[in-house]
Design a protein that fits this description.
Oxidized Rhodanese, domain 1; 3 domains; single chain; 19 helices; VC0802-like; five-stranded antiparallel β-sheet; six-stranded mixed β-sheet; Rossmann fold; 41% helix; 21 strands; cytoplasm; 492 residues; tRNA-binding; tRNA_STrfase; alpha/beta
Amino acid sequence: MNLSHCAFIARFSADFATKSRGTRTHFSRTLQKNIRAALARSGVRARTVQAHDRLFVFASEETPARAALARVFGLANFSRIAARCSADPAEMARTVERFRPLVEGRRYAVRARRRGNHDFSSVDVERCLGAVLNANATVDLENPEITVHVEILDGRAYFFTERDQGAGGLPLGTSGRALALLSGGFDSAVAAWRMMRRGIAVDFLFCNLAGGAYERQVIQVAKVLTDLWAFGTRPWLFVVDFADVVDELKARVEPRLWQVVLKRLMYRAAASAAGRCRAEAIITGEAISQVSSQTLANLKAIEPAAEMIVLRPLLGLDKSEIMAQAHRIGTALLSEKIPEYCALSGPSPAVQSTARKVGAQEAAMDPGVLERTLAGMRRIDLAEVTGDELRSDYLFVDDIPEDAQLIDCQPPAHYRHWHLPGAVNRAPEDIVRNLRRFDKRRCYVLYCPFGTQSAYLAEIMQQHGYQAYALRGGIGAIRKRQEAEMEAALHA
C-alpha cells in the first residue's frame, strides 16, 4: 500500500502531557485505532506511525483525510507535510528552496523544532533556511504572512506551512462508557458530544413521547453523532415508548410536578438501559435554571432516581453557547426542527421541590406501567441504520393513528369521486407553500394515487418537525385493504 504521497504530522492534545508513560501509550494506541477507523469510514486507506510525541498519518487521499482527522478526539492539530528530507543542514537548505515562490514578496518566518540528538540547534536551522528564502521576501518574526515550519525527528526533517485544528480532548474509548439521554434537541446532543470529547464511549436512550416521526428525527441526530464523531466505537440507541408512562403520570401526579416526576422516570429508564450496555454513568443536557425542572432544588430531587453517577456537562453554559456548539458538531439543523415534546405543560410548574415530595408523587403511580415500558425497550445499532430504513420504517403507516388528520393529495375531481372519510383535500404545492400553518401538536397522514407523492410530502413535513406519515401503497392498496376488511367483517 503506497500512501507516501499524502502524509500528515499530527500532535496529541495537551491532556497527554499530564499522563504517565503507560497511560500515554494506551491513549496513543487507542487514538491510532480511531484515526484508522475515521479514515476508513471516509473511504481512505491509511496507516499510522508514532515518533516521540508526534503521529504520522499516511493516507491515500488528502481532502477526505483532512476532514476526518479534524473530527478525531485526542488530536490538538495536524499538518499536511509539504516536503521532507534528511536532517542534514545542506539537504534542508536545498529542500526549503521549493518554498521560495510561496514567500516571495511576503513577510515570512521560519520555525524549527527538534527531537533527538543533532549537532545543531533549532536557531541554527532557522537562520540557515531563512538565508535561502531571503532573496525576495522579508523576515517578520512578529507578524508573518506565512510561516515555514520544519520539524526534525530522528534524522528526518518535515516541512509544512499550515496547521489544521483538531477536535482536542481525549481519545474516544479511554474514559469508560456512559449512556446519554437523547431528546434530539440542541442540549442533549451537545452534552453527549462533550462527554465523547473527554474520551467517554457513549450510547443513547430515547424516551419517545410522540410517535414514529419523532423517533426518526432523533435517530437522525444520533446518526450524525455516530457517523461524524464516534470513530472506534459502535454506539447503540435504546428506545422506550413513554406514552403509557405519561398517561399514568398525568392521571396520578400533581400537574405542577409533572416535569420533575417525568425526569425521574426517565432517569430510571436510563439506569435500566445503562445496565444493558455496561455504562458507568448517565449523561443529560441539563443546564442550571434553563427550565423549571433544572433548578438546583429540582435537580437535587430528581437525581436519586438515577442510582448512578449523572454527568451534566452543560450546567454552566448559556443557550447561545450550546447552540453554537450544536452548529459546530453538525446537529443544529436537525435539532432546530424537533419540537420540545419532553416539556409537559402543567400549570405553574414547581421550581422548588424535594426528593421526599416528588418521591411520594411518583409512588402514587402504578409501578407496573414503567416496568412494562422497560420490558418493551428496543435497541438500534446506529452503525447499521441506513437512509432507506429511515424511510421504510418511519415514513409509512398501514393504519391511521387515532385523532390523525387525513390529507388527500389527489386532484380535486378525483377527491370528489372517492376519498377516505374525514380526509381534507390539499394540493401538494399548497402543502409545501404553507408548511408553517400546520399544527405541530397534531399527527398527519397523507395519501395519493400511487403513494409516491404523499411519501415525498410526508418526508418534507417530518424534516420540518411535524408528525407526518404516508399511507403505504397508494389509493389502490388502500381500497384493497378496505375491501378485505369489509369482507372479513361480513364473515365474522
